[in-house]
Amino acid sequence: MSRWLALPPHGTVAREVAGLIIIGLSALAILLVAEVWRRADPGRPEWTRKFVHVGVGALAGCFPWVFDHAASVLLLTLGSIVGMLAARRWHALPALLEVDRRSLGEIYFPISVSALYLLARHQPILDLISIYTMVVCDALAAILGKDYGRHPYLVTTDQKTAEGTATFLVFAFLGVHIPLLLLTEVDRTACVLIAAQIALLVTCFEAISVQGIDNLVVPLGTYYLLMRMTPRPAPQVAESLLVQLALLGAMMLLAWRTRFLTFSGALAAHLVLYACFALGGVKWMVAPAVALAAFLALDAYGNRGGRERPAYHVAAIFHMSVVAVALLFLDNSFASILPGPPTLSSSHVFYAPFVGALGASLAAGAFLSFGTAPKKLRSRPWLRAALSLALGAGLVVPLGLLMTRNAIRLADVVAAGMLGALSLAFFLLLRRRPDRAADLTRQFRFVSLSVLTASAIVLPLHLAWLGAVAWVRR
User: What is the pTM of this model?
Assistant: First the structure.
């Protein structure tokens, strides 16, 4: 009997085909059980959705042991995406797709599973931990938060609960700590600290994610953090954890004492500041901290005379900082991907554009804030734009650039200044229509799009000036 149940040898086509058949039939069985459950108890759609989430996630956790070729997983991913799109089109699979909020989680899910397999198939324990945070922690947080949550908070259009977030935090800690402790050689003390920090970070990722994007951000973020943190000694992890807790406490205090940030905005702001510390160091935190302080002053200016403006939520923080954070990640990985001369590798060629992107976002934010200025200023857009650019380029850029070197280089000043000027010009061009100017959410999107466009123009010129283009070509 055991001979009939044995799978073909690893690496053979027969093994890959057998794996595809087994995984495919198992996934269909899970969907069938969920549909039967939904019809028997139609009042609890979240339970059947999470049942599918956990069941298919468990199958995905087996991929490193079932498949030897990435093509098999990519084929499953493509089939899943096509199937989900067809089910959406024909209103099928209500046990999975019948949800009271807009979500693309069923599309992000197979993408993240495929990406994890490609990245971590030779590190199956890290793959399992990453999938666990996506399926088990998310399912428990959603179900317990929905049934027992009494303290809701809003993340743009999605409502979550403090109880659900706390559930995610606890089970994320256990799901990271126990496998690291029992299945790896990581030091015991480091295991606890790594689990605590990863749990805190991915819980924040999940708390500010909307429309199912957590199915992509949480597992890939968990894997990235595991790769960065597991080689570190316990004292270094403890330092990072203390810095993150301090930043989180400061942003929560700011959200509590002012109307500048919402709860989700505070989580997002602390993640931006912590990313600057973790990837760049203390000096890289200066420019975003200066920009944040300037935004706070502008908010107080806009609220003068009793006029209240909406607090900055996660979408606002995202659009104001996304390009700068992308440049931070580029600077952190550029030299290791494209090794070159030591003098150039260690000079942080992306730092000036990083500072310029923050200054550009501040200039756009200042232009919006000056919309409540006296009529004399509001009636002169060119003066309003000049003051906004002077604030962004004259405050963030010099303070940020002075933090990394004793003397400011002309190339850095030119790059940061050009980025700010072009960004503000693109921003004004995008909002020139009155209907666009009235939509605040659209304004935030215009900020990130303007900064991204300006960065795409300025960055090649800056790299060429510093000699990095010739470096890459070699």
Answer: 0.88
